[in-house]
Amino acid sequence: MSKKKISSASPWESMFGYSRAIRVGNTVYVAGTTGTDTEGNPVGHGAYDQTKAALSKIHAALGDAGATLRDVVCVRAYVTNIDEWPEMARAYGEAFSKIRPALTIVEVSRLYKPKMLVEIEVVAVVEERKDDVFI
User: Fold this and answer.
1) Which of 17, 21, 29, 109 has the greatest number of CB atoms lying within 10 Å of its CB?
2) 56: helix, coil or strand?
3) Hey, which residues does 9 pair with through a beta bridge?
4) pLDDT of amino acid 77
5) Is the pLDDT of residue 116 over 60?
6) Which CATH architecture has domain 3-125?
7) C-alpha to C-alpha distance for 124 and 113, rounded to whole angstroms
8) Is the CB of residue 89 less than 8 Å from the CB of residue 77?
9) Residue 87: is its pLDDT beyond 50?
10) Mind listing the pLDDT tens digit for each residue in 60-82?
11) How far apart are CA 135 and CA 121, in angstroms?
C-alpha cells in the first residue's frame, strides 16, 4: 500500500522529520496542529481563535490528502488549561457538530510556546464517493 506525504512547508517538519499528514490507502493521519502563523507564533486571543486556526490548517491538510472534515473519525485535542474547554468546544463544534467524530481532550502542562493553548490531531477515513479526486 502506498503512502502519500503531505507537507505544509513548515520549517518544523524538516527539523523534526515529520509530515503534516500522511494518507495510507483510505486513511489520513494529520499530525498535531496548533493555531499558529507561518513563523510559529500563536494567533488570536484565546482557545477559540487558536482552535479555529488549527482546524483551518487541518482542513487544508485533509484537502491535500483528498479528504474533508466530514471524513474525520477521531480527534485528539491537547489543551494547556482545561478550564478554557468551553471556548475550544465552541470552535470545535462549529466544525464538527454534524460530523461527530470520536473526541478526546487532554490537559497538558504546556506546548512548545507558552501562549500556545491548543494542539489538535485527527484521523480521517475517506469513504469512496463520486466527488473524490485523490488518485
Assistant:
1) 21
2) helix
3) none
4) 97
5) yes
6) 2-Layer Sandwich (3.30)
7) 27
8) no
9) yes
10) 999 999 999 999 999 999 999 99
11) 24
Q: What b-and-e string marks burial along 70-98, b requiring 16 or more CB atoms within 10 Å of the CB?
A: ebbeebebbbbeeebbebbbebbeebbee
Q: Where residue 101 falls among pLDDT bands split at 50, 70, 90?
A: very high
The H or E element containing residue 109 is none
Cell numbers given for 107 = 490537559
Query: In the structure grid, which three cell numbers stand for residue 1, read together?
Result: 500500500
CA–centroid distance for 59 within its chain: 7
Domain boundaries, the chain: 3-125
Q: Identify the helix (H) or strand (E) that includes residue 49.
A: helix 47-64
Q: Mind listing the pLDDT tens digit for each residue in 5-58?
A: 988 877 778 788 888 999 999 999 999 999 998 888 899 889 999 999 999 999
Interaxial angle between packed helices 47-64 and 85-96, expressed in degrees from 0 to 180 and rounded to the nearest 10: 30
List C-alpha distances in Å: 104 to 21, 29, 41, 65. Answer: 19, 16, 25, 23
Beta bridge partners of 4: 23
Cα→Cα distances 105→2, 37, 86, 91, 99, Å: 31, 23, 12, 14, 17
